[in-house]
Amino acid sequence: MLNATWLNTFTTLCETGHFTRSADVLGMTQPGVSQHLRKLETQVGKPLIVQDGKSLTPTPAAEALFKVGLARRQQERKLRELMQRDDPGVGEVRIGCSGSFAMWLYPHLLERLRTAPDLALHLTAAPRGDVTRGLVHGELDLGILATRPQQPQLEARMIMREELCLVVPKSLQTQEVGLADLNTLGFVAHPDGYEYADELLGRNFAKEYQGSDHLRIRTSVNQIGQILTPVAEGIGFAILPRSGVDAFARRGDVSILDLPIKHHHDLWLTFKRSRSKFARIASMISLIEKEVSALNQMPK
């Protein structure tokens, strides 16, 4: 690989055509310029300058190398401009959150992409442990977590309280439903569903509920967008955060049971403090907070 300092000295020498002027431009001594030229000639294995008195004539190899030097300067200039600009609409943003929240969030993020053609967005639906590790290791820029992280390098802002919902077929929306009725209907299991069931059913059916491992499984699915599909078809019940229910394409075919004891998750927008200084990250934080604020004001 060509030495960048020697190449810059050589490029300046070709531009000025004079050792003394090159030394003045570079803030060097004339012998220093000559030394850089000799070292570069040794590196490329070719003579670069033919000197006839005070006249300097570049060799064919020098002409090719001069083009390389000019191109590298242009690349460095563009890189400096890009780094100094820190445009909120340029670069990559990587976000991790639960599948249900991703279903609700993604359409709002697409609106941002429409107005920022140089912005790349990567949204990952993953368990909270994976999201936390991704933030700590720099694999994610932003995360939305259901518990406040304890890692000191992470900053977290509570953006909303999200209700955990018991979802049944629309035909049951006016009926009084007990745990036995739910078991007859059958549970639509998914990776987070067992934990959700213990949290919600354990509070509302404390005397009867024996744990999620005692629920009758009617079907299981690990695709977040499909969890409520069997419920919409009258098959089974499911438990999801409200964002996942509201984002379901057939929302009108399912119903949320009005339970006596509500249960909520606090959602935390989480990021490394150092990353939040980047314009594109700060802009995305503001966008998520704005959309969540609008969601919080909507009637439930």
TrEMBL record:
Residues covered by the HTH lysR-type domain: 2-59
Molecular function (Gene Ontology), one example: DNA-binding transcription factor activity
Sorted UniProt keywords: DNA-binding, Transcription, Transcription regulation
Database matches in InterPro entries: LysR_HTH_N (IPR000847), LysR_subst-bd (IPR005119), WH-like_DNA-bd_sf (IPR036388), WH_DNA-bd_sf (IPR036390)
SUPFAM superfamilies: Periplasmic binding protein-like II (SSF53850), Winged helix' DNA-binding domain (SSF46785)
Highest taxon of source: Bacteria
PROSITE patterns for this protein: HTH_LYSR
PANTHER family in alphabetical order: HTH-TYPE TRANSCRIPTIONAL REGULATOR (PTHR30126), TRANSCRIPTIONAL REGULATOR LYSR FAMILY (PTHR30126:SF99)
Similarity comment: Belongs to the LysR transcriptional regulatory family.
Protein's name in the database: Transcriptional regulator
